[in-house]
């Protein structure tokens, strides 16, 4: 019963109402009439559309091979060759998709049941391929997107590499220019040092020349001064020259008079010097006396200070003695008070002792009785 049910389900799946929409969904040619009463033209159209869907060139299939051309006897044989070529190609494809019982009569004399089975198989395969193609296209889109990203990254990498290379070249050029500038600076510094050295030499030469000029000026001034002095001396000597005996006598008298005046001045100065010496001696004696008195005052000051220190020490000793006397008096008073207290306690103890002795004696007497 289960096998009969399976057969019914299989037959039901081959119904025209089920296969027809499936073929249309797969974009394959289909009419209910063609499925109910299939003919060669419909099968050829169906297979041709199927092959074209997968990019197979039908003109190549329709073109006979050299052996077929040699076997053709008339032009009408080309239709047969086309059918044979179509069958060969379709049979190979059907073998790949696990439809193994396809034969040439399925094209030339199609049966209704076999056609529906084959049409169902083809439509399902096309729908499966369409679904997989969609997934494949999505995957291809992803791959293309990734490829584009990789290309962008590659371009970016190339751009970055070129930028880095450009920067490296620019930096190298800058370094080269820097080195050249440094060499130029060193060269200019060398020239500047040489010029500074020359300038210093010129300054030294100028200083030496200035010193020589100054010495020459000083020498010239000295010569002028000497010449002036000589001129003055010559004038003085000329003024003192005696031209007659009277003038000579007069000049001699004047000189003697001046000599006497100078002798008198000298004598006066000697007396003044002696007086000054005497005054200095007296002042020295007074200073010595003052120094002696000052020394005595210092000695007296030391004695006074020493006496004052002794008085201070004496007062301190007196204060200490008074303090000790006070302490001794207080101690003596305390000792007397303590002695009185001890005597009082002694008397009290003696009284207590006597009372105890009396009590003991009385007790002893009582015991003896």
TrEMBL record:
One of its GO terms (biological process) is cell division. Residues 10-143 form the Kinetochore protein Nuf2 N-terminal domain. Belongs to the NUF2 family. It is found in: Chromosome, Centromere. It comes from Acromyrmex heyeri. Its main location: nucleus. This is NUF2 protein. Residues 178-215, 252-293 form a coiled coil. GO terms for cellular component: Ndc80 complex. Keywords: Cell cycle, Cell division, Centromere, Chromosome, Coiled coil, Mitosis. It comes from the Eukaryota.
């Amino acid at each position: 019963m289960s096998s009969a049910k399976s057969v019914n389900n299989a037959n039901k799946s081959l119904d025209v109402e089920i296969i027809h929409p499936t073929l249309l969904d797969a974009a394959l040619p289909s009419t209910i009439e063609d499925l109910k009463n299939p003919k060669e033209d419909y099968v050829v159209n169906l297979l041709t559309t199927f092959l074209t869907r997968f990019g197979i060139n039908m003109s190549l299939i329709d073109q006979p091979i050299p052996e077929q051309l040699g076997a053709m006897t008339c032009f009408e044989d080309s239709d047969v060759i086309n059918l044979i070529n179509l069958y060969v190609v379709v049979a190979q494809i059907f073998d790949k998709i696990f439809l193994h019982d396809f034969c040439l009569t399925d094209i030339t004399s199609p049966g209704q049941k076999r056609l529906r089975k084959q049409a169902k198989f083809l439509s399902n395969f096309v729908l499966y391929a369409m679904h997989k193609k969609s997934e494949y296209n999505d995957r291809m889109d992803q791959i293309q997107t990734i490829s584009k990203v990789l290309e962008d990254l590659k371009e970016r990498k190339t751009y970055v590499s070129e930028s880095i290379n450009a920067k490296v070249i620019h930096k190298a050029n800058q370094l080269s220019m820097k080195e050249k500038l440094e060499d130029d600076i060193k060269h200019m510094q060398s020239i500047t040092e040489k010029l500074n050295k020359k300038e210093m030499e010129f300054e030294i030469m100028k200083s030496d020349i200035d010193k020589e000029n100054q010495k020459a000026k000083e020498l010239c001034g000295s010569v002028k001064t000497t010449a002036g002095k000589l001129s003055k001396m010559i004038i003085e000597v000329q003024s003192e020259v005696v031209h007659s005996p009277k003038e000579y006598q007069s000049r001699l008298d004047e000189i003697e008079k001046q000599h006497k005046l100078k002798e008198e001045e000298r004598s006066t100065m000697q007396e003044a010097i002696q007086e000054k010496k005497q005054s200095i001696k007296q002042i020295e004696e007074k200073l010595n006396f003052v120094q002696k008195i000052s020394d005595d005052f210092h000695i007296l000051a030391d004695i006074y200070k020493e006496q004052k220190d002794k008085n201070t020490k004496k007062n301190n000793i007196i204060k200490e003695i008074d303090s000790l006397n006070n302490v001794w008096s207080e101690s003596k008073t305390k000792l007397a008070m303590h002695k009185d207290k001890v005597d009082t306690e002694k008397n009290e103890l003696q009284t207590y002792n006597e009372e105890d002795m009396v009590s003991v004696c009385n007790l002893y007497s009582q015991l003896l009785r």
